[in-house]
Model the fold of this input.
Amino acid sequence: MTDYTPQPPAAGCRNAPIVKERGQREVFCGLTGIIWLHRKMQDAFFLVVGSRTCAHLLQSAAGVMIFAEPRFGTAILEEKDLAGLADANAELDREVDRLLARRPDIKQLFLVGSCPSEVIKLDLHRAAERLTERHAPHVRVMNYSGSGIETTFTEGEDACLATMVPTLPDTDERQLLLAGALPDVVEDQAVSLLSAMGIEPIRCLPAHRAAETPGVGANTVVALTQPFLNETAALLERRGAKILSAPFPFGEEGTTAWLWTIAQEFGVSPETFAKVTDAPRARARKAIAAARETLDGKSIFFFPDSQLEIPLARFLTRECGMKAVEVGAPFINKQIVGPDLDLLEEGPVIAEGQDVDLQLDRCHAARPDLTVCGLGLANPLEADGLSTKWAIELVFTPVHLYEQAGDLAGLFARPLRRREILSDLEGAA
Done:
């Protein structure tokens, strides 16, 4: 019988010591998740309760087209609101009433706090309950925090999905739930591969529309598509769902291991699995090989940013021949990323959290061939002669599954090729 479980190294990183740092950090706040979530959820609206700074951040980061009607906005808090001189609840109710009167297509409204409630003088949880009663059954109002004090970059999505889980209807249906927002093209590929194996029904969280919202129960099997859904996974488990433990679907090996874990749960035969995956697996290996010529033997250093760092380090070391020097992540939940840690050969420093000055010192001392970091660190590191890759690109670019494996490897190969070209030009001059 063919077994598609990847062969681990002699010693992996699951039990490696973790450097835990709790100092100054360089990472986007959780509000950024709105930028991909508002595109994914077609009848949802994200109303950020915050300052003009938050409004400018979202408009700039999202690059909203002048002709587009976005599905997010900002209820701006003025000085009198922050000072408690105005009835902020009444003002928020008026803003929501105006919004829903103008946009009757909205079925899900998220109130997103840009600061803790102690700062904005609003209990958004109570506000969401009050507004749900007011606008039910046409609109469900929910809330979560995107505050940079309470959340980092991708935690915004986790917080959003986590606030949805208690509202999901109960179901006893045996089903597969894919949890995590994927670009539509990637989600379609995942559903197509799994459906071809005979697995059904397949639901997605988040769904494109409120009417497609999945149920959850004791017969729900959850396959996480993103490694940062810590709270969402815990809440789904509390609702009775079974969370599959698997490497994440980055690269050929990771995608095969992820699909094989699901296939085994649903009794798919190795013959059927091979019939469905052999061709895309071959395409993925071929696409990765083109980038591996550039990446093989090169060292890489990950600053903590998106929580994708551990699965990506596994992909780059095992499939692209790179050597990981340090793998930093904002949080490390071994229940979720443990399978990837098992496959990551021991050797790199594994760091959780950040003290940016200390980590910069380690990076400068290591002089890696490639550094994955946030936008704020990239230019200083480039000025110091280090090649960098923006971590944010890895969240906004389709990188999961077989058909994107070559693109994923290419994202890391391009800055190294650019450095080689510039060096050649300088040498010729």
